[in-house]
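I hope you will forgive my troubling you with a question about protein structure. I am sending you one protein, given as its amino acid sequence and as whole-number tokens for its backbone shapes. Thank you for your consideration; the sequence and its tokens are set out here:
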Amino acid sequence: MIIGVSGNLLSKVCNLKSKIEMLYSKIEGAGKPLLILHGFLGMLDNWKTLGTQFSTEGFQVHMLDLRNHGRSVQSEEFSYEIMAKDIYDYCQANNLENVDIIGHSMGGKTAMLFATTYPEMVDKLIIADIGPKFYPQHHQSILAGLNAVDFSKKPGRSEVEAILSEYITDFGTRQFLMKSLYWQEPGQLAYRFNLSVFNKKMDEIGVALPEAAIFNNPTLFIRGGNSNYILDSDFENIKKHFPDSKIETIPNAGHWLHAENPKMFHELAISFLK
């Protein structure tokens, strides 16, 4: 564990190992525990700015790299059940109780399953642009682009982006993916996420929340106005699983709503958490 102090903030970068797995996290601030779970192909760094904001407002913020992402454990096991268990193990290792959770996309579905499986551990839940329903596979072009990069040829960052651009036309999506590139050793780039496992287990990303899963505590769903992940027709199903829930919309924002309009996302989240 590495501990550093910056101003009045306590910042920790932790490698915490349970009996089986290890999750990597960055912890900032002091107060009520707030866990932040990133989306598919992301990592905790995607939430660094907002996480730091929350840490100044009475929260001990735990930004996590989920399994097979970022600096966390690389494993052949990949499902919402195992990721929810990872969160449980993380909370146990850190003696965390009565936590609030923010989860985006895949992280949101993980948060839903965790909250409905261990409701006694969760106070409030914020789900960003994902619903409890089944989602058909829709990452084919992204996976094709990621798999088209041959790291044995030792490409540079600009070469990797040029290859990705042949498959992924959206600049923002490419930049999001490029954040997970790192120098494995001098002259050798690699992805931080476990692409080989995702190739085999992509269907796990779209799995629905179990039919009987219910969480009765306050829950806020925030959707992007330009995103099709949460439709008006999904409201009834959301209420079935989360009876004490409300749904807010950030206008002119897509699936990465927290990055596209962090100010409004923060305002909605902090108003709900306080």
